[in-house]
Amino acid sequence: MKQIIISKQDSLRIHKSILDAKKNNTIKKEDAERLLNELHSAKIVEPSEIPADVVTMNSVVKIHFENNKTVTEFKIVYPHEANIKEKRISIFSPVAAALIGYRVNDEIDWIVPSGMTKIIIDEIIYQPEAAGDFDL
User: What residues contact residue 97 under an 8 Å CB cut-off, 6+ apart?
Assistant: First the structure.
């Protein structure tokens, strides 16, 4: 498995979101464990050291699924900010958890509710760190 890159700030906030969700029973145990495993295997860096082609929290990404060529674009957000109509997807969702820390053109094998799929990151339309927005 390829090592992902996460900012120190994102790592701390995602951990806190998971702890809060566990306390409130708003995350499945297996989803929490999968995301925590990703975080524990990640290379943690300062926000200013995140490469511009890495998916971070609050990034707007364009992806496609290899099995059906569906292209979609959305923003990865914390659970309290999620709104499917506004294309803001929670980090707790399988697709967002699959993408965090990976780079443009990476292909990620990930289990989603419908089974195994390959997700390809086509573009990062907006990344806070690349834009100098370190306080999001």
Answer: 31, 34, 35, 38, 91
Q: Crossing angle of helices 29-41/8-23, nearest 10°?
A: 160
CA atoms within 13 A on the CB side of 54: 22
Query: Residues with Cβ < 8 Å from 119, sequence gap 6 or more?
Result: 63, 64, 65, 66, 95, 98, 99, 107, 108, 110
Tokens of 93: 């969702």
Q: Read off the pTM.
A: 0.91
pLDDT in tens, 29-63: 888 998 999 899 999 999 999 999 999 999 999 99
